[in-house]
Amino acid sequence: MNRILNQKRLHQLQQFHPKLENVWYLVASATFSVCNRPEEIPLIYHQALSTQNGKPIDDRAKIIHELLESNRSDSLKADSLMESINETYKNPIQYEVQITKKLREALLITYPLGGLPKAINSLSQLKSVTPSALLPCVNQDVDITNPNLNTDALFQDTLRANPKTIEEYKKVTDDGIKYWNNVYNKVSNKVFHNISKSYPDMIYFIIKHTYGPLFSFNKILNEKEKCLIIVSALVPQDVDAQLYGHLKGALNAGCDKEVVSLIQDMSIMISTWCGVRSSNKISKL
């Protein structure tokens, strides 16, 4: 499969507009993930790591070049590349930690929007080029096949709390309802009941398993960032009603109207590069 990104296109994404300086890599990665081109995400990640405040950092462009030239099926080249990555980022600064955490979270957000398999593949691609010092700490001693396993141990490494009491479970639901109302505002009840009439179990999973624990979680991404990522993940999919709802939701969250339009334009451009065609009519603010 031919690579979509080259150095020119990487710079085009990063310099798309000054107002997108802090979110371009999140939006671009979410769009590539939904377009089922996760192999482009490592380039975006390292392009974001290689610059700060719009300026290149030392010689990190070398890693970008190696990624552009590398054949990921060649294990020797892959090992050499990871040696270079680990050496460059052996003492990561807060800026690099933040970019890595935000990108992981952005790709997680895409899973109920574009599909779980795509999100898994995208996070796997990201992991394959993440410096060892920036990988999440995970307890690998847990044996999931053990019939006597304490299931709480399965999720001890997650950033999200693992609800154990009725009150904690209720809070997840309350958080989901609050986020839902923030997005849909005046039409919250209408959208809720329309989905519920189609299948009550659908709205159950949306509130309790998507809006509650996923969309309302704000320890890594803020409300505006999450809204922009959701919009970018919906643009390639020709789901006009859902896109329009989240365009309005982005405004309800306080996003600048021009920024939301720029996000759409970037996602449309990436979708075109990927050969993912949307209908001629697409919701605009």
What does the model show?
60% of the residues lie in helices and 1% in strands. By secondary structure, it is mostly helical. Helix 2 (24-34) packs antiparallel against helix 3, helix 3 packs antiparallel against helix 4 (61-69) and helix 6 runs antiparallel to helix 8 (116-128). The protein has a two-stranded antiparallel ribbon with strand order 1-2. The longest helix has 19 residues, at 166-184. The protein has helices at 7-14, 24-34, 41-49, 61-69, 75-88, 94-109, 111-114, 116-128, 166-184, 188-198, 200-215, 223-234, 240-252, 257-273, and strands spanning 51-52, 55-56. This is Carboxymuconolactone decarboxylase-like domain-containing protein.
Number of helices: 14
Mean pLDDT: 90
Please describe the biggest sheet, giving its number of strands, its sense, and whether it closes into a barrel: 2 strands, antiparallel
Describe the global form: globular
- Helical content stands at 55-70%
Write down the Rg.
20 Å
Give a count of the beta strands, DSSP E runs of length 2 or more.
Answer: 2
Question: What is the straight-line distance between the termini?
Answer: 35 Å
Order of helices and strands: HHHEEHHHHHHHHHHH
Helix/strand/pairing class, anyone? mainly alpha
Q: What fraction of the residues are assigned to beta strands by DSSP?
A: under 5%
Low-confidence segments, given as residue ranges, are none
Order of strands, main sheet, comes to 1-2
Organism: Henningerozyma blattae (strain ATCC 34711 / CBS 6284 / DSM 70876 / NBRC 10599 / NRRL Y-10934 / UCD 77-7)
Protein name: Carboxymuconolactone decarboxylase-like domain-containing protein
InterPro entries: AhpD-like (IPR029032), PTS1_Protein (IPR052999)
